[in-house]
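Our preliminary data section would be incomplete without showing what the modeling component actually yields. Below, a chain of 227 amino acids is followed by its predicted structure, encoded as tokens that our downstream tools consume directly.
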Amino acid sequence: MKSKKSSSVGVLYLKTYNLTLVFGWSYILLRFFQNDFSSTVELGLWQNLKWPVIIFQHAAILEVVHAIVGLVKSNPSLTAFQVASRVLVVDAVLLAIPYSAASTTGLTLALLAWTITEIIRYLYYFMNLNNFVPYFLTWLRYTLFIILYPIGITGELLCLYAAAQYAKSHPEDWSYMLPNSLNFTFSYHYSLILTMLSYIPIFPQLYLHMFAQRRKILGKDSNKKAQ
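Predicted structure:
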């Protein structure tokens, strides 16, 4: 059984974590709207937001740890899938070949969806830890995903597709081809294709899970208001 002291420390940590992420993604959103979108080349957007996105997107990995150790009640597997797709886009696509993937409209779509989603989500978590969540915030948390999730997924897939096209024409980059001393081969191009294909079974599950959560949370809140 956890002591009250250890429990309060955990709550304080989660409050600090979530509030930090609210400010972090708010900063990214501010920088996003300050970007010069009149340019046809979006590589500048990535250069302006590169380090904040790297830092705060990787900070989400801690959510998987929180779920595993029981600090939060989230499903570790679902959390891992949600975090992994975004981290993979940042690490294996945007950082690997930014001059290709970051020059597509996919980056704009992904960043817009990520920032708005994360600001609302982390603010919801923070307010929930303070036992005060305005209904409007709850509604935003469990409604905007209906449009933001598909937008974000579309942006991620466009970035992955651009990277796959580049990898196909530049097989020497990030691939390890035979023959070699290790007798091992790795195709960056095919790994990107497999990643895109993995969205087919995973995305519907996560999307439907959010709808189930929406019915559970908003339905419950609606019942409370009606009483």
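Residues 1-6 have pLDDT under 50 and may be disordered. The two ends are 36 Å apart (CA to CA). Preliminary results of this kind motivate Aim 1 of the renewal.
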